[in-house]
Design goal:
Layout: H1 3-43, H2 47-61, H3 65-76, H4 80-90, H5 92-104, H6 108-116, H7 121-154, H8 164-172, H9 179-208, H10 211-214
Helix pairs in contact: 1-2, 1-4, 1-5, 1-7, 1-9, 2-5, 3-4, 5-7, 6-7, 7-9, 8-9
Amino acid sequence: MNFWEYLGSRHQQLLTDAYQHASAVFQCMVVATLIGVLIGVATYRSEWAGNLATLATSTILTIPSLAMIGLLIPIVGLGVPPTVIALTLYGLLPIVRNAIVGLRGVDPSLVDAATGIGMSRLARLLRVELPLAWPPILTGIRVSTQMLMGIAAIAAYASGPGLGNLIFRGIASLGSKNALNQVLAGTLGIIVLALLFDAAYVLIGRLTIPRGIRV
């Protein structure tokens, strides 16, 4: 059967795999964003602490994704746990780096003005610094999401959820009539999900970033 016939006959399973893939990436991005922003907030005031945080999270990216998941399997087993841990760790670097850059880039005069009207340090952070640092933080989230879309496919190695299962099954059955269709369906599905997520981030940016800051 050709590719379109394959999609028509397997559309229900493809939609299920796509939903699982998107759900895994989304949930891991939420966790990575919370952790990454907290690390950025804790380290941006100190040059050495910020550099250490960036170095630590960038070191994680030097570990091949297949090796990372392989190392996690003996510790947490197969399935969702190694997928969630690996994706969350891989998603940290762009968020941490952009959070530090964004917070350090806030105009000191604005912080001084907030201090002058009696804002506490926490209030300054939540009402002045983080809103102004949001554009680069959102950019970091977008970069992380695109990166995790591809890495999530490797999770199929550990029986993880998502479209990677199609790709692995196709590769394992090369020569069979549907092998190429499986690989192509999984790959195109990941590309479509990545584009949809990126479009959603563009919309979020337009809704949450004031026009003056965008300019």
